[in-house]
Design a protein that fits this description.
Blueprint: E1 10-16, H1 21-34, E2 38-41, E3 62-64, E4 77-81, E5 88-89, E6 98-104, H2 112-115, E7 120-123, H3 132-154
Helix pairs in contact: 1-3
């Protein structure tokens, strides 16, 4: 029997007032594919989504909160993902061991009410605005790829 090796740390996702239910469903699927531990969201735009083909809500906490700041896991680094001045490009970012990535709706930025309590702010360099769920996938993939590269270089 092959042992499953689990990497140290975890990632959690926060969606600040997502615009469309399909984005929440697709973000849930990304959590399952890339092993995120939790998804929290604010706002009232979400209902069950057919985009969550893995029914990930059955396998990890899906939390509806009034404020994402109130659901940050203990000793976890809040990381805003927003296309704003001063944000760090994703390819230059070193992901924290325990990260709570916060994404905004496609029709707005997170705003200072969120970014002021985040330790870091990152962005995905693109030629235009990405879909919310696509951005979740890219950030989680980047985290996983960098973890695997570190593991290989340490071996």
């Amino acid at each position: 029997m092959r042992a499953i090796h689990k990497t140290r740390g975890y990632s959690a996702i926060g969606l600040h007032n997502p615009k469309m239910a399909v984005n929440v469903g697709s973000a849930l699927r990304a959590c399952g594919v890339y092993g995120a531990s939790m998804l929290a969201f604010t706002g009232h735009r979400y209902k069950n989504s057919a985009a969550d083909t893995m029914k990930q809500w059955r396998h990890m906490p899906l939390i509806h909160a009034d404020d994402l700041h109130s659901v940050i896991p203990f000793d976890c680094v809040p990381v805003a993902v927003d296309l704003i001045e001063g944000a760090i490009p994703l390819h230059q970012y070193s992901h924290p061991e325990r990260a709570f990535y916060i994404f905004g709706a496609e029709d707005s930025t997170l705003g200072r009410s969120v970014t002021e309590w985040c330790r870091d702010t990152i962005y995905v360099p693109t030629n235009g605005c990405m879909n919310l769920a696509a951005t979740v996938n890219v950030v989680l993939y980047d985290r996983q790829a960098k973890q695997l590269a570190r593991k290989r270089s340490a071996a």
